[in-house]
Amino acid sequence: MVESQSYQYVKLVDGNYQIVTEELPQPGAGEVLIRIAYSTINPFDKAVFSYLKTPRIGSDGSGTIEAVGDGVSAELVGKKVAFLGDAWGQYKLANAHSLIILDDNQDLTKAANACVNPLTALAQLHLAKKHGATAVIITAATSQLAKQFSRLSQQEGIEVINIVRRDDAVEQLKNENGAKYALNQTSETFLADLAALNKELKPTFLIDYISGDIVGKIFATMPQKSHILVVGNQTGSTLNLNSGDILFNDKTISGFMLHRFLISIPAEERQKILQRVSDDLRDGGKIFGSTIVKEIPLANYLEGLNEQTQVATDGKILINCQ
Ligand SMILES: NC(=O)c1ccc[n+]([C@@H]2O[C@H](COP(=O)([O-])OP(=O)(O)OC[C@H]3O[C@@H](n4cnc5c(N)ncnc54)[C@H](OP(=O)(O)O)[C@@H]3O)[C@@H](O)[C@H]2O)c1
Questions:
Q1: How far apart are the first and last CA of the chain?
Q2: Which residues are in the Enoyl reductase (ER) domain (predicted)?
Q3: CB contact at 8 A, 203 and 210
Q4: Domain covering 6-113+290-320, topology
Q5: How far is CA 55 from CA 38, 42, 52, in A?
Q6: pLDDT tens readout for residues 115-168
Q7: CATH 3.40.50.720 domain range(s) in the chain
Q8: What is the pLDDT of residue 312?
Q9: Which of 1, 59, 78, 279 is most exposed, with the fewest beta carbons within 10 Å of its own?
């Protein structure tokens, strides 16, 4: 039983988000009450803020379990966790099986971005392997998610061709993220360079975060039976594909949403994925650790949302939720 207490969170009220104070809820059957320590700001939060308008906002967070409902082991009380959703607030309720249970010594600032991107990176790997890809092309390769996917793929022996939009980003990925292949999409020789690389590596899986004409041109350089996984749309433009390339070369396309993926896989596989992230963070976050560029209080979430795009190449903005 949770003692009567009020808490603050960011809530959708009449179509706009604002910080409200409400009575702390009791965890129901199968639920836990989490005292949220930190959250981060992801591109998905901008989409929620602008048009998805879910009742609560904040895609990723870390905290400590303070109470459990019926049917949940009391041993979970005091455990550090990372979780998806409803993170911009001081407390939240969650299903006990949806959490990443962290090591007791885990620094919660380093686990505040442990779900959205790490779980998506692992899902992308799962889908690329299922497609039979031995090499993958990825756009917006300076994004935190692409960097995690690239590190993961190096560990799994899958080659990654990183596509960026600046020369300095090519060097940065090679020097700081161990990238073997990185190309600047704004270079005059980009498509010819990519076609030459494709002959050698035969990438059959394209992970796209940017959309637009350039993605269709990249796809057209890829072998028959290649697949595009649409994961994001950083440019806000229409995806322009050559229908002949799809018809005659047997190419395919699908959209990815993390929550859909997580419910599509068996519970044991989901647990393995959650555990893999927890283990990596415990060991220092070599794959899934993300760089924090600054910390802001919950009250300044709007300022953080506006600043997110400017700092995205370097890392994440951390929200201190207490
Ligand atoms: N569908 C899902 O379930 C799911 C889950 C997780 C993430 N995502 C998506 O995955 C993407 C990456 O997420 P993240 O958190 O890693 O993002 P992030 O760290 O904020 O990085 C965003 C990246 O987008 C690049 N970018 C922005 N505008 C661009 C443009 N006009 N052309 C080319 N590149 C551009 C930036 O590159 P520069 O360095 O060149 O500025 C930056 O590296 C986002 O689109 C996000 O919405 C989707």
A1: 21
A2: 15-319
A3: no
A4: Quinone Oxidoreductase; Chain A, domain 1 (3.90.180)
A5: 19, 17, 9
A6: 999 999 999 999 999 999 999 999 999 999 999 999 999 999 999 999 999 999
A7: 117-259
A8: 87
A9: 1
- Closest C-alpha to ligand 1, atom 30: 235
Give the mean model confidence (pLDDT) for residues 171-196.
97
Average pLDDT along the chain: 96
Question: What is the second-level CATH architecture of the domain 117-259?
Answer: 3-Layer(aba) Sandwich (3.40)
Per-residue pLDDT reduced to its tens digit, 14-51: 999 999 999 999 999 999 999 999 999 999 999 999 99
- Residue holding tokens 């692992």? 122
What residue spans in the chain does CATH classification 3.90.180.10 cover?
A: 6-113+290-320
Give the C-alpha separation, 298 to 26, whole Å. 23
What mean pLDDT comes out for the span 69-91? 98
178-183 average pLDDT score: 97
For residues 106 and 282, the answer to whether their CB atoms sit within 8 Å is: yes
Q: Which atom of ligand 1 lies at the shortest distance from residue 185's CA?
A: 33
User: How many whole angstroms from 142 Cα to the centroid of ligand 1?
Assistant: 8
Q: How far is the CA of 160 from the centre of ligand 1 (A)?
A: 17
Q: What share of the chain is helix, strand, coil (3-state, %, to 5)?
A: 40, 25, 35
